[in-house]
Design a protein that fits this description.
single chain; 397 residues; alpha/beta; Rossmann fold; Coagulation Factor XIII, Chain A, domain 1; 2 domains; five-stranded mixed beta sheet; 18 strands; binds adenosine-5'-diphosphate; binds magnesium ion
Length: 397
């Protein structure tokens, strides 16, 4: 990265001590004869994150992954158990509900208190006050104690303060989801303004579309560790994979291949049988030629040929398949399989190809091979699973 690093976390770990209060644990404690059992829990483990000036980074992960903890550590509200944190410039943060405001104070008092904590003088806040209140839509309530605010009202005021203090770095937790949709749109517009102004933004969200739409980078956190850091579409794909991997215990492992077919090559092109093409735009025709060979042997099987186009973390994005009964014949020889897709779907990012040949009758895998040479699709924005109309024809090579 050639941008000036603004947010730096190196080897950051955060341990919480949890005091169990469950009744079932009481007995254990009693039996063990201890006064108070406490367990340690690592909410962050060895996290390295460097965010450059002007980047917009989406931080995503399952619940309990450590996202809020990481934001609090970066905001200086929590001290890491080990590791180093350095954030340059004025940080405005919109963290979990409860962080930042004093419930006993009124909205007006909290505006002054918060802005002061961010380094603004009373005079500066005087100048911004009306605008903060207007944006927050809380004028009628501004002299009520914030403990009487709804969570939506609370977030509106907190967000308004955060964006009015001219921060260099904006840290936003998923609290935005608390407000109403109209306000969420207003906040997004503000975040876009910040982007254009070259501010550095790190935000946590459950809205994966927002990550691909808005972010220049996506970071996936799971179990307190960074699992992926890079392309936003890939980050989203990686999270989807994580969320989808909670398979029932005892799910069978992939069966062993039975062999007898070799996949020699897979060449993507803009025309049938054309030279290799690596970059596509959404809507382009997409042709894929697979060369395979049915080997002579004691057992020769009819094979169906399938191609899986996979995004980050090997997430299938779409798949192509020879029609039933029209795959590789049980006749040794070389074959080409041409797949034709009329229009590349509106994907965005790099994709890899997996070619798999399955027994046409039993469905057992005969062989599989992956081609890591990425196909790039630009101009689109879909990282998901798609149903794409396509044709496939097998002919002797
Ligand atoms: N103050 C705390 N004491 C003990 N455990 C905590 C504390 N704060 C967070 N945790 C635990 O740390 C883990 C990560 O929490 P959090 O950062 O809030 O996750 P996320 O925001 O990704 O949902 C969770 O298992 C949570 O229960
Ligand atoms: Mg959280």
């Amino acid at each position: 990265m050639d941008r000036r690093p603004v947010i730096v976390a190196r080897g950051v770990s955060k341990r919480f001590m949890t005091h169990s209060s469950k009744a079932t644990q009481l007995k254990e404690r009693f039996v063990k004869g201890r006064g108070g059992a406490s367990e340690e829990f690592w909410a962050l483990r060895d996290v390295d994150v460097v965010v450059g000036e002007g980047e917009t980074v989406g931080l995503i992960g399952p619940n309990g992954a450590g996202k809020s903890t990481l934001l609090k550590v970066l905001a200086g509200i929590l001290r890491p158990t080990s590791g180093e944190v350095d954030v340059q410039g004025r940080i405005a943060s919109l963290l979990e509900l409860g962080a930042g405001f004093n419930g006993e104070l009124t909205g007006r008092e909290n505006v002054y208190l918060n802005a002061a904590l961010l380094g603004l003088s009373r005079k500066e806040v005087d100048g911004l006050f009306d605008s903060i209140v207007e944006f927050s839509e809380q004028a009628p309530r501004i002299d009520d104690p914030v403990k009487h605010y709804s969570s939506g009202e609370y977030v509106k005021l907190a967000f308004s303060i955060a964006v009015h203090v001219d921060p260099d770095v904006l840290l936003v937790d998923e609290v935005l989801a608390v407000g109403d949709e109209a306000f969420a749109r207003k906040c997004l517009a503000k975040i876009r303004d910040f982007q254009l102004a070259g501010k550095t933004i790190l935000f946590v969200t459950h809205s994966l579309d927002l990550v691909t739409e808005l972010c220049t980078r996506g970071i996936v956190v799971e179990h307190g560790r960074v699992q992926y850091d890079g392309d936003p579409a890939f980050a989203v794909g990686t999270l989807r994979k994580i969320l989808g991997t909670d398979r029932p215990v005892g799910e069978p492992a992939a069966p062993v291949e039975i062999g007898g077919v070799v996949v020699h090559s897979a060449v993507a092109s803009g025309i049938r049988g054309g030279g290799p093409v690596g970059r596509f735009s959404a809507g382009d025709p997409f042709h894929l030629r697979v060369h395979c060979e049915v080997l002579a042997g004691d057992e020769v099987y009819p094979g169906e040929v399938g191609v899986v186009v996979m995004g980050a973390g090997d997430i299938p994005v779409f798949s192509l398949r020879t029609p039933k009964g029209q795959g590789l014949p049980a006749v040794p020889g070389r074959y080409v399989v041409d797949f034709e897709v009329d229009a590349v779907p509106p994907l965005n990012g790099a994709f890899i190809l997996g070619v798999q040949v399955d027994h046409a009758e039993t469905g057992l895998p005969i062989t599989a091979r992956r081609f890591d040479d990425a196909i790039w699709v630009e101009t689109g924005d879909l990282p998901g699973l798609l149903d794409v109309p396509a044709k496939a024809v097998v002919s002797p090579a």
